[in-house]
């Protein structure tokens, strides 16, 4: 999930919202997939169209982890899990955009190789670095864990600009793999709020909702904020939002007034705002108990006893759960179990020929059969017929 325009606005005013910082003797929570994409794009050598480069990626991942360990920083990697039903439209739109991009005759160097993230999981397991695969989207878990461990978050997701945890964007870190220190720039949301009139941090979920994200259209509140639909000036939007919120009696009154004039989408928007507020207030980590099992986390176990809960119940069978949490089984398995669908990654290939994944259908039948059972039809979504997105069904009738 992301807030359109917010990253650019904050980066353009970085002197106001960031402070110089040096990472040492601390924990950090790292958004795992954000890191893999960031490091790949940083070190990609214009050969993406051919796939692979896994040796280069492995070296970069290892150098990154060793830099943190050398500076006495323990990284905790948290990864997104299954796709969620509420994001299906966004997922399909992004898939279509990538198909159009990768199908161009001028090839892009922005295509992550198919097993790029699997390499990182292998390295994390080999080096015994704390990490966990979440059941679903990881943002709320990352924030909850950072609050409990009192440490910063490292990512590229603009949602973290609207939260109270200290945040370090990946491109604000000086990555010198031979260094003995990690210089970076640290963001604290209080500086942003002070710049726009000093609203209390409890209003952050409403600000995020008014700005718009993957679940709430950007122009939903254009009339309320006296903005033209399609306004992308994030500074202007923040100014109007904070002015409007300061005129409200309290949060409940603001929430009521936000949705009062949305007769057709009121219930939906209300639910999305309440989800944002719930995630913002949450300090219960579902997976901290799992993360604390790593040897590098031993000294933190006693201090966090009161916050630990039994491992989160999951629909995964016991024989699969531990491997899933460690990433030796990837998140597509969870998508199959929860949505009964599979989404194939878009890759660079000959788009005049059938998509790469069709040769795997017989193998998928066996995998689906183990996870779901027989006599079931699983829709699959990916590239089909040139530059089009389409569905195919895998029938479990063996």
Plain-language structure description:
The protein is an alpha/beta fold. The chain has three domains: about 5-190, 5'-nuclease (Rossmann fold); about 200-280; about 330-395, no CATH class. About 40% of the residues lie in helices and about 15% in strands. It has 16 helices and ten strands. The protein has helices at about 5-10, 15, 30-45, 55-70, 90-100, 115-125, 140-150, 190-195, 205-210, 235-245, 250-260, 265-280, 290, 320-325, 330-340, 360-370, and strands spanning about 20-25, 25-30, 75-80, 130-135, 155, 165-170, 180-185, 340-345, 375-385, 390-395. The chain has a five-stranded parallel beta sheet, sandwiched between helices. The protein has a three-stranded mixed beta sheet with strand order 8-9-10. Helix 3 crosses helix 4 (about 55-70), helix 4 (about 55-70) packs across helix 6 (about 115-125) and helix 9 crosses helix 12. The longest helix has 17 residues, at about 55-70. The two termini are about 40 Å apart. The mean pLDDT is about 90.
Give me the CATH architecture of the largest domain, please: 3-Layer(aba) Sandwich
Instruction: Please mark out the parts with pLDDT under 50 across 5 or more consecutive residues, or reply none.
Output: none
Radius of gyration: 22 Å
Q: How many β strands by DSSP?
A: 10
**Total of helices:** 16
DSSP strand content: 5-15%
Largest sheet: 5 strands, parallel
Kindly give the count of domains. 3
InterPro entries: Asteroid, PIN-like_dom_sf, XPG/Rad2, XPG_DNA_repair_N
Domain XPG N-terminal: 1-98
Family: Belongs to the asteroid family.
GO molecular function: nuclease activity
């Amino acid at each position: 999930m992301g807030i359109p325009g917010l990253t650019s606005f904050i980066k353009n005013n970085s002197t106001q919202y960031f402070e110089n910082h040096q990472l040492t003797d601390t924990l950090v929570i790292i958004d795992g997939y954000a890191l893999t994409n960031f490091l790949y794009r940083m070190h990609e050598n214009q050969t993406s169209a051919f796939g692979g480069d896994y040796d280069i990626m492995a070296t970069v991942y290892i150098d990154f982890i060793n830099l943190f360990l050398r500076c006495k920083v323990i990284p905790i990697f948290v990864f997104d899990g299954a796709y969620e039903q509420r994001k299906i439209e966004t997922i399909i739109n992004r898939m279509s955009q990538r198909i159009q991009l990768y199908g161009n005759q001028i090839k892009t160097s922005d295509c992550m190789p198919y097993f790029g993230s699997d390499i990182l999981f292998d390295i994390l397991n080999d080096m015994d670095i704390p990490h966990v695969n979440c059941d679903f989207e990881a943002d709320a878990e990352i924030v909850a864990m950072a609050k409990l461990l009192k440490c910063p978050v490292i990512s590229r997701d603009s949602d973290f600009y609207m939260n109270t945890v200290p945040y370090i964007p990946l491109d604000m870190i000086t990555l010198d793999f031979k260094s003995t220190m990690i210089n970076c720039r640290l963001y604290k949301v209080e500086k942003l709020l002070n710049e726009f009139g000093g609203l209390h941090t409890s209003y952050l979920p409403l600000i995020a909702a008014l700005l718009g994200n993957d679940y709430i259209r950007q122009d939903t509140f254009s009339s309320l904020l006296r903005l033209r639909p399609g306004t992308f000036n994030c500074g202007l939007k923040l100014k109007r939002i904070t002015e409007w919120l300061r005129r409200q009696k309290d949060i409940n009154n603001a929430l009521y007034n936000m949705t009062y004039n949305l007769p057709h989408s009121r219930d939906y928007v209300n639910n999305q705002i309440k989800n944002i507020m719930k995630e913002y207030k949450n300090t219960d980590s579902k997976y901290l108990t799992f993360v604390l099992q790593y040897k590098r986390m031993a000294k933190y176990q006693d201090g966090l006893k009161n916050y630990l809960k039994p491992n989160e119940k999951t629909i995964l069978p016991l024989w699969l759960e531990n491997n899933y949490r460690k990433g030796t089984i990837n998140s597509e398995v969870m998508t199959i179990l929860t949505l009964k669908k599979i989404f194939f990654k878009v890759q660079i290939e000959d788009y005049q020929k059938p998509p790469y994944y069709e040769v795997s259908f017989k193998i998928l039948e066996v995998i689906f059969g183990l996870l779901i059972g027989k006599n079931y039809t699983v829709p699959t979504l990916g590239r089909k017929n040139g530059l089009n997105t389409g569905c195919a069904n895998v029938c479990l009738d063996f």
